[in-house]
Amino acid sequence: MCYKSMKYNLYIPLLFIAFVFVSCNDYLDQAPDNRASLTNAKTIRELLVSAYPDQSYQVFTEAMSDNVTDRGAQANELAVSSPSALISQQAYSWQDIKGDNQDTPTAYWTSCYNAISAANHALEAIKNLGGGVEYDPIKGEALLCRAYAHFMLVNIFAEHYNPQTAATAQGVPYVTVPEKVVFNDYKRNTIAEVYANILSDFETGFPLLDDATYIVPAYHFTRNAASAFASRLFLYTNKPDSVIKYANIVLGTSPQTKIRDWNGIYQTYTSQDAISSTYNKADQPTNLLLTACVSFIMRSSYNRFAMDFGLLNTIGYNVNITGGKNGFLFYGASAYNFVFVPKYKEYFKRESINANYGLGYSMIPMLTADEVLLNRAEGYVMLNDFENALADINVYYSKRVLNYNPAVHTVTANRISNYIRTDRPVLAPDYAITPTQLPYIKLLLEMRRSEFILEGLRWFDIKRMHLEVKHNVLTGEASPVVLSPTDARRAVQIPIDALSFGISPNGRPDILPAIEISLLK
Q: Helix, strand or coil for residue 323?
């Protein structure tokens, strides 16, 4: 994709036919329609490089969650160096985020529909060429890409899946054919329709995948990456049997070898650069799907509305249920109440040699074995298989607790039942949780919260469990401001440009808190 500045000039949700395997200069020399070049497996496979979203959602979903706080005026000096500062500010107050620059909802929406369109062009080309064994793995990857992009869109821009309301609640347009006109009318499918299409694409595509066809498997939907996606899909729709089925494919018989070694090899690194470089390497067993994104996500920690030391300790970075200390590594500056968890390494590309502006690029793990392990543990709990749930919980802590000693740190059922925290929010999922299951689910949510700092996944747990979110405000307003479990702003607003294509907007409350205005003064 050719970008000429930090501002995107993309129609939504159309895909410009400039495929990523054509450079910017080459693209200017091409005919406007390159679909005629899709004449063999090689060119179609090259097209699928652009079937993965190349924008991030992590900055704004993290800022909407309870993983951030108002760090106060002392943070402003650092925040000026972060292009995502305004995005975080608007997301923190659950405003409809303006603009279409990188790290905005509009940029992510556009990127997902571009990815979907690339997948649809690939599928159409395969069909026109007659398909066959040679094309099956490519078809499988295209279907998985289409399913994943729609899944992320519906989970960001719509309500969380609720079997009682999904048949009528608005989802997102599920696009299954290539766009061949400049302007088209799009209608939102219901959430039930979106999920039915996601499942259909997954079930058709998964058996066709062939890992041997990839040069760098971590950049594609391998069988493990697809299984990780399935474990999330079925977790969000409360199908624990399927969560466990696909998680087992990823984790095998030695899950401890598949998750991130925070209390091992990471402790040997002496710089945050070394940690962040390793965190996103394709050869790390936990990294099942990596995507190169246009994002300033690394700088989001500098924002006024971000993690601070107090919040870091509150969510368990210091001491956890084992009684031990977490091996997560972080850096910070007490003068600014600033905390940085080294998960990302930014590559900055200037607009020109003399320019002081440009684009930030980051390699971001979209699916990991760490998430799969926690998904499976939750699946076991929902099936009342507490023995296996405890086994997964203890595998997790064996790679997180410094100087881990099973005799001291093993989590037991008794330990869970006696682990009381007064700051836990009330859970209100769209399915029943028994009193026996509840303390396990609460613990797993805390584990997920700390594990996925800066990765934006906490927001989806907030939505699926209908958690209340409280944000403090250090500007003279009444604090904290609260996002209720039923607030309509949990569904991010449809981008303004998309509305012109016939897509209806999400509803909004009539009266918004004072923070909505005062933070922008």
A: coil
Q: So what's the pLDDT on residue 81? A: 58
Helix extents (H) in 80-222: 85-92, 105-128, 136-157, 191-205
**At residue 28, does pLDDT exceed 60?**
no
The domain spanning residue 279 has which CATH number?
Answer: 1.25.40.390
Residues in contact with 25: Cβ distance below 8 Å, sequence separation at least 6, in sequence order: none
| Nearest-angstrom CA–CA distance, 392 and 244 | 12
Give the per-residue pLDDT at 4.
Answer: 29
- Is the model more confident about 50 or about 81? 50
**d(Cα 104, Cα 56) in Å, to the nearest integer?**
8
As for how many domains the chain has, the answer is 1
Region 57-86 average pLDDT:
82
Helix/strand/coil percentages in the chain, nearest 5: 45, 10, 45
Q: Is the pLDDT of residue 272 over 90?
A: no
280 close to 345: Cβ distance less than 8 angstroms: yes
Q: Which domain holds residue 208?
A: 24-518
pLDDT for 80: 56
| 339 sits in which H/E element | strand 338-340
